[in-house]
Amino acid sequence: MTERKVADSLVETIHMVRPQHLNSAGRLFGGTLMQWIDEVAGLVAKRHTHMNITTASVDNLNFLRSAFQKDVVVLIGKMTYVGRTSMEVRVDTYVESMDGVRKPINRAYVTLVALGEDGNPTEVPKLITETPGEKMEWEGALKRREMRDLRRKEGF
């Protein structure tokens, strides 16, 4: 099975916040942002595996600030960890101003599982971490995985 670099599956998407994306307070609806995050994470995982995938969990969905109508929202997803059949993807979300400055509004970690042709979990390509930042993300992912396992055992 082929190994892949973090950069091989990097995804960046851009959305304009439109009236249908707003909640009753005039801000980007959290559910819409969660959908966009899940789509980006899925694209990262599909690029890494070249297989069908499914979302298993979302961790650390932190809403840092709001986005409003006509804001340009940029989502950047990258692979942070790969297990045997599962993967973790970090998705950072920004509001981009007219001069190109990006301010963070959200960070999420999404766990996905690769599916074989039979619809069951299947092995995924290994991840090559090259930079110190990529290696730090890998270490953080191991800790997040431990926390997910603990929550699952405790019924959360």
From TrEMBL:
Keywords: Hydrolase. The keyword Hydrolase applies. InterPro entries: Cytosol_ACT, HOTDOG_ACOT, HotDog_dom_sf, Thioestr_dom. The keyword Hydrolase applies. Residues 7-118 form the HotDog ACOT-type domain. Belongs to the acyl coenzyme A hydrolase family. This is Acyl-CoA thioesterase. The lineage of its organism: Bacteria, Bacillati, Bacillota, Clostridia, Lachnospirales.
